[in-house]
Amino acid sequence: GILLEIAGRTILDDSYNANPVSMVAAGRATGRLPGTGQVVAVLGAMAELGDDSPAIHEMTGRQLAAGPVDLVIAVGKNARPLGEGFDAGGGVSHYCADLAEAAAVAARRTGPGDRLLIKGSRSAAMEEILPLLDEAFTSHGPTGKN
């Protein structure tokens, strides 16, 4: 992945591919990044998992809830079970229909010192959220409050 900083938040852009093992590993890696705030995973769907895809997404969400991820922002309907699993595992998730909505939620729910993971399969085009985050974070000002 690529490390970036936008508006005081450290971002691990690991958006080019995803499978259950790499998603959980990336969540853990994000928690080890420097920063004092929360760990937020902005996740798109994982592709090519076959008929069990929803169950695999749900299980992956549960594993992410074991830590250190504090919040999952699931983007797109195929990623919704990631959030459902995260919730079932004791976490808090937000479901967003698209990247623009996800960027707005991330701007509302994060602030300087927080660490964010951006991840999803190639088909989810999660890297396209980066300019949206840049815009959303700066328009919300330094406190993250609108």
3D structure, described in words:
The chain is of the alpha/beta class and 146 residues long. Helix content is 38%, strand content 21%. It has helices at residues 20-31, 53-65, 80-88, 99-109, 129-139; strands at 2-6, 9-14, 39-43, 71-75, 92-96, 115-119. The chain has a 6-stranded mixed β-sheet with strand order 1-2-6-3-4-5, with helices on both faces. Strand 3 (39-43), helix 2 (53-65) and strand 4 form a beta-alpha-beta unit. Helix 1 packs parallel to helix 2 and helix 2 packs across helix 3 (80-88). The N and C termini lie far apart (30 Å). The relative contact order is 0.24.
Major sheet attributes: 6 strands, mixed
Order of helices and strands: EEHEHEHEHEH
User: What is the first-to-last residue Cα distance?
Assistant: 30 Å
Tally the helices. Answer: 5
Low-confidence stretches: none
- Gross geometry: globular
Structural class based on helices, strands and sheet pairing: alpha/beta
Number of strands: 6
Helix content: 25-40%
Strand order of the largest sheet: 1-2-6-3-4-5
Taking Cα atoms only, what radius of gyration do you get, to the nearest Å? 14 Å
Into which percentage range does the β-strand content fall?
A: 15-25%
Can you give me a brief rundown of this structure?
By secondary structure, the protein is of the alpha/beta class.
What descriptors fit this protein?
146 residues, alpha/beta, 6 strands, globular
Describe the protein's topology.
Elements: E1 2-6, E2 9-14, H1 20-31, E3 39-43, H2 53-65, E4 71-75, H3 80-88, E5 92-96, H4 99-109, E6 115-119, H5 129-139
Parallel strand pairs: 2-6, 3-4, 3-6, 4-5
Antiparallel strand pairs: 1-2
